[in-house]
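Q: How would the structure tokens look for this protein?
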Amino acid sequence: MYRKQLRRRRAVLALLIVGSFALLTLTYGQGSNGIQRGVTAIFTPISSVLDRALKPARDLINWVDETFDARGKNHELETEVQALRKEVVGAKVALSENEELRALLNLEKSGAIPAEDGPVTGHVIGLSPTVWFSTLMIDVGSADGVKVHDPVVNADGLVGEVNAVTGGASKVRLITDHESRIGVRVVPAGLQALVKPTVGEPNRLVLGFINGDKTLHKGEKVVTSGWHSEDFEGRFPPNIPVGEITEASILRQKAQEQVIVRPYADLRNLNVLQVLTGGSHE
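A: Here is the predicted structure in token form.
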């Protein structure tokens, strides 16, 4: 029963709508203002009912349009944010490298790098696959004037030496490599000694072969000496900063003739390096 009534109401509504369009067409075609007003008065309530009935559908369509528009704008904003983020990161990287290069320039001006050792700047492109922090790769090679045994430094001090070269890259043996030996001088004590690594501990070097007539102290500086002997040939020019004495017990000095040195260079976080080329340290 209810369905029949619903169908009947729908049929009546459809007839009214069709009739309204017919009357409106006829009325406007004949130009009768009276009939126009009558038709308008009759069908205005129907138009209001239709507006209310169709409002949810119009609202849904508008909501869909606004949603897609908002999603499009959100995607554009995300793209802009990503681009800005890349610019910020790039600026920070450039600023960091600029600071490292300035520090390298200060090291060169300080006289720690001999004038004849033309520095070639490179970036780290590969690290040792082990925990020993023994080697790394840089993006300059023989095409840039780099040769085997050239010293390698960063803004803080000595890093190592080149031990293999190709046209566009070099392998650097760090001062923490188990084969590394560095002739050094303690400042201001003036004592000549030899530094070797503590394998697996990049922040700890052992300074040994101490001449027992002098006592070393915590905080004294260690630089390359440039000396060589029959048993050991130093390939580093003099006065490159190496590190600082951090442990210097009297007992250890007397018993083992050793003290502990912390390297100036953070060998676990290297980026911009310089190879000292053209010197007489080959």
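Residues 138 and 192 are 31 Å apart (CA to CA).

Confidence is low (pLDDT under 50) at residues 28-32.

Upvote if useful.
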